[in-house]
Structures are given as C-alpha cells and as structure tokens.
C-alpha cells in the first residue's frame, strides 16, 4: 500500500529491534521498513554477514532512511543489549520452562508499560536459518512466540519484526499497559551489570571444577543465565550479589594459602 506522507510528523523511538547475525541486506532493509511503518526507529545489528553499510538494505528499506542511517552495528549480542533494562527473545521453537512465554499482544503491552515507566527495552530476532541459540535466549528476560501453523512455523525476520512492531503501535492506541505493568520501585539493572554477574559466577565455578565437560558446561551456563534473568535485579541488588560472591573467593583463596603454608611448615 502506498501512503508515505513526508508532511506529517514522523513517529520514532520505542524498543530496540536487535537483529542477531542477519545474512541478507534485503532482510535488514525490509525490517527497517516494517519498523518505520509502526513508529520504531532504534535498529541494532549484531555482526551482519555482508557487512555494513549495505546498499541492498538501503534499497529494500523503501525510504525508511531514518532507521537505516541510525542503525548501530555491534560485534557481540552482549554489547548490543548492554544498556537495556528489559529484553524479549522471539522464537518459534519450544524452550525450557525457566522464562515466561508471552504472545505478541501481551508482549506489546508489557513493552509499552516498561517504556512508559522510563525503562530501555529491546526485542531479539535470530538468524534467517536457525534463529536464536539457547545461550542467546538466555540473555533475555522473557520469550515472545507467535501463534502460527505448527507445521509451518518459520517466519522471515521482517515478518516477525512487522508483527511485533504492529503490536507495539497498537498498544499505544489505548492504555492497557497501565494495568498490565506496574512501575517498579527501583529501575531494573542494565544488562551490562547482569553480564558482569554472569561472568563472575561462571569464572568461580570454572575455578572450582564445577563444569565437568564442555557439553555440560554449555547446558549449565544456559540454565544459570535463564534463572538469573528472571528476578529483574536492580543495580544495587547485583552489587550485593557480586560482593557476596567476591567474599567467597577471598575466603577460598585465604584457605588455600593457609593450607599451603601448613604444608610448607611440615
């Protein structure tokens, strides 16, 4: 449908749309177009296969120039979500039960409520062929999945972005988020703080031989991250936990030194 009118106010802002390792520039361009249709403008791209900027993305964006020109490229997913407070991961495949699963309508209302409360939010979209990996889903707070034909559940990333962008726009036409989400007393921590907690715990577990094999390590880390993203820790709460774990490290190292000194004396 034609309907672009440069004389009217351009709606921008909203949750960050984060594309993880997209393959085709055309898909990125169609994502930008879908975002512009429904008032989103914050596009983040993690390690695009064909590099950036991309002429095919510009062509496919159909003059969604403000989205394309404002797109930011990141080398890692952790960096792309570091400043966000709340993140959804989109997936069509069943996952474990550690995270709440929402439909697009509920997810759109929750995002609207959190944005209205001053939080920075984002939605993760995976690769064209394989979607998001388990550990990437583990970095999100909740999962959003679409009611599609179970025998043909694959969506193009631009289609998936279009669905979520539509629900975002629709959630702003009324005010269901006023009851769907209550503003927290303290703002949830940025993901960078949570990732620091992950790294500290995983380093400590590694040092103690907790991970008996690489296969078990990957599954254990996925589960650990999934569990730790559920509470919505504040920055102060994460600081308390990191201080607690640091004290364990000091106690362990102190005990090891005493044992070594005792052995020397013998």
Question: What does it look like?
Answer:
This protein is α/β, with parallel strands linked by helices and 266 residues long. The protein folds into two domains: 16-180, SPOUT methyltransferase, trefoil knot domain (Alpha/beta knot, 3-Layer(aba) Sandwich); 191-265, no CATH class. 49% of the residues lie in helices and 10% in strands. The chain is built from eleven helices and seven strands. Strands 3-2-1-6-4-7-5 form a seven-stranded parallel beta sheet. Strand 1 (16-20), helix 1 and strand 2 form a beta-alpha-beta unit. The protein is globular. Keywords: Cytoplasm, Methyltransferase, S-adenosyl-L-methionine, Transferase, tRNA processing. Its main location: cytoplasm. Homodimer. InterPro entries: Alpha/beta_knot_MTases, RNA_MeTrfase_TrmJ/LasT, SpoU_MeTrfase, tRNA_m1G_MTases_N. Its EC number is 2.1.1.200.
């Amino acid at each position: 449908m034609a309907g672009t009118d440069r004389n009217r106010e351009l709606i921008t802002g909203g949750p960050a749309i984060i594309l993880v390792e997209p393959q085709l520039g055309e898909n990125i361009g169609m994502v930008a177009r879908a975002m512009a249709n429904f008032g989103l403008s914050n596009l983040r791209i993690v390690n695009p296969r064909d590099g950036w900027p991309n002429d095919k993305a510009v062509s496919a964006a159909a003059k969604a120039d403000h989205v394309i020109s404002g797109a930011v490229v990141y080398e890692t997913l952790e960096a792309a979500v570091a400043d966000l407070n709340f993140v959804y991961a989109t997936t069509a495949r069943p996952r474990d039960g550690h995270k709440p699963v929402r439909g697009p309508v509920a997810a759109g209302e929750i995002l609207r409520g959190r944005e209205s409360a001053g939080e920075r939010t984002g939605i993760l979209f995976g690769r064209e062929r394989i979607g998001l990996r388990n550990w990437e889903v583990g970095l999100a707070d909740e999962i959003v999945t679409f009611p599609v034909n179970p025998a043909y559940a694959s969506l193009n990333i631009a289609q998936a972005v279009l669905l979520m962008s539509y629900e975002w726009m629709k959630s702003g036409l009324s005010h269901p988020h006023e009851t769907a989400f209550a503003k927290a007393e303290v703002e949830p921590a940025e993901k960078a703080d949570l990732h620091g907690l992950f790294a500290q715990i995983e380093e400590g577990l590694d040092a103690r031989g907790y991970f008996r094999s690489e296969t078990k390590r990957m599954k254990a880390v996925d589960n650990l991250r999934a569990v730790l993203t559920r509470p919505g820790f504040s920055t102060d709460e994460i600081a308390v936990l990191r201080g607690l774990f640091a004290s364990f490290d000091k106690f362990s190292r102190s005990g090891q030194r005493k044992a070594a000194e005792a052995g020397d004396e013998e």
